[in-house]
What we know:
By secondary structure, this protein is an alpha+beta fold. The protein has two domains: 1-47; 57-207, Porin (Beta Barrel), CATH 2.40.160.20. 21% of the residues lie in helices and 52% in strands. The protein is built from one helix and eight strands. It has one helix at residues 2-45, and strands at 57-66, 77-89, 92-103, 111-123, 128-142, 150-165, 168-181, 193-207. Strands 1-2-3-4-5-6-7-8 form an eight-stranded antiparallel β-barrel. The longest helix is centred in the N-terminal third of the chain and has 44 residues, at 2-45. The radius of gyration is 38 Å and the shape is elongated.
Amino acid sequence: MRIAISGHQDSRTDLAVAPRRYRVKGKFLLFAIAFSLPLAAAAQDSKPAAAPTFERYELGASAAYSSANQAKGSSALVGGSAFADYKLKPWFGAEADFGYYGASYTSVQPTMTTFLAGPSLFLPSDRLMGNLHVLFGGAHTGNVGATPNISFAWAVGGGFEYQLRNHFYLKLAGDGIFSSFVLDPTNQHLSANLRVNPRATAGVAYHF
C-alpha cells in the first residue's frame, strides 16, 4: 500500500510540474520574439536609401534683347532664343542655345544669329534654381557689310529659374556673347576686333 501511494503521488507531482515547464518555455518564446522585432526593424532601416530622382531634360524658349556692337550706329536688337539642357548630375550638365536677333529701331538694320553649346552648372533648391554656363560656337551677322560675316563666338553668363507649376519654370538669364567681325570691309588689312554683346532673356522652360 505504501508503494502504491508513493507512485500515485509521483504521478501527481509530474502533472503539476509539466504546466510550469510549458509556461517557462512560452515566456522564453515571447521574450525571443519581442527581442527580434527591433532587430528586424533596425535591419530594414539600415538598407541604403534609393537615390533621389531628378529631371534630366529641359526645353525652353525666351524673348531676347541683345546689343549689336559689331554694327556702327546700331542700338540693341530684339529677337528670341531656343535652348535645351541635359543633366548628367543634379548640379552638372550640358546646354545648347540657338538665337536670332533682328528687330532694331535705328537706321541700321543688322541681324545676328548665334549657335552655342557647352557645360552648365546648376544650383538646385526647392522652387528656385540657379544656373551658370560657358558656351562655345559661332555667330553670324548680316546687313552691315562685315567681311567675314561669320565668327567664332563664346558666351559666359547664367540666370535663375522659378517653378510655376509641375514641370513648368520661369527663366530669367543674362550673358555676354564674344565675337570678332571686321567692321570696315574697305580695309581688309585690319584684323577683326573682339566685341562683346550683352544679352538678356526671359522665357519659359519645361523640365522632364
